[in-house]
Write a structure and sequence with these properties.
The relative contact order is 0.12. Helix 10 links the parallel strand 8 and strand 9. Helices cover about 40% and strands about 15% of the residues. The longest helix has 14 residues. Helix 6 packs parallel to helix 7. The radius of gyration is 20 Å and the shape is globular. Strands 1-2-4-5-6-7-8-9 form an 8-stranded parallel barrel, surrounded by 4 helices. It has 2 domains: about 240 residues, Aldolase class I (TIM Barrel, Alpha-Beta Barrel); about 60 residues, Four Helix Bundle (Hemerythrin (Met), subunit A). It is α/β, with parallel strands linked by helices. It is built from 18 helices and 9 strands. The two termini are about 35 Å apart. One of its GO terms (molecular function) is FMN binding. Keywords: Flavoprotein, FMN, NADP, Nucleotide-binding, Oxidoreductase, RNA-binding, tRNA processing, tRNA-binding. InterPro entries: Aldolase_TIM, DUS-like_FMN-bd, DUS_fam, DusA, tRNA_hU_synthase_CS. It holds the Pfam family Dus.
Length: about 325
Amino acid sequence: MTPNRRRFCVAPMLDWTDRFYRRFARELSRHAFLYTEMVNTGAILHGDQQRHLRFDDVEHPLALQLGGSHPGDLARCAKIAEGWGYDEVNLNVGCPSERVQSGSFGACLMLEPDLVADCVRAMRDACQIDVTIKHRIGIDQVENYAFVRDFIARIAEAGCETFIVHARNAILKGLSPKENREIPPLKYHYVHQLKQDFPQLEIIINGGLTTHELCSEQLQHVDGVMVGREAYHNPWFLSEVDTRYYGEGAAPANRHDVMLAMREFIEAELSDGLPLRLIARHVLGLFHGVRGGRQWRRMLSDATLLKNAGWQLIEAALAEIDRELP
């Protein structure tokens, strides 16, 4: 375990934190710890590994998040992740979607701590990189602190040292994944208490963190913060990460420079036949709140303009932005 590496993390977000978003995020922060979107073990063991596991070296530090509940399969995937060069493998024990539940993994695994412990132990035995888990504080109406405390104690016995805690319950029936991120109340004090009860463990807090002030406040109580949708919808948020949380590096000069730094990567991907829309969708929020930002978003989300488009479309959209603004 390397404590301050995960001082600021960008959350794994299904369909969002793909390799194109992560490459973009790295232009904004060199140090933020990045996570892939969740990949289930079957997709890795029986599917297209290149599609699911490929990443650019500049994305480090980078973790692969796995979905699964079979210790043997997870162990094999952890070994594969190590071979691909990932810095960490993370087990998803927090996703509440019914699609995930049907595969017997995600948040429902919190009800089976012995199985989770077996999974973690198998993964740790299979690889030398960090094995971590991401989970909720409770399930459905189980809201007492003792539930999550005892869960962590059991998994720590299996050798896990890093716990990423979404400070909400997971409601397994009746709420969509989006509602599960908004309706169950945040209980940050539960996560703070976990750090007090397990000072030897690395505790990272997740859920509802939308400002740097709130993140800094949480870091008075825990080892790290994990930010999700704010980092995606308002990516300029990441431009302060290196100086605020790691005490080094300079923020990008301006948002134009961030996009210009992406040019070589984008043109290389386009030359390989990638449609521009697969990258453009991740940069729509870069000029959030800036004059011309609406036009930027409109142009880079217009299906007609994007069809067969190249770098010239991005140049045209950049021309709409007020260059006097940061």
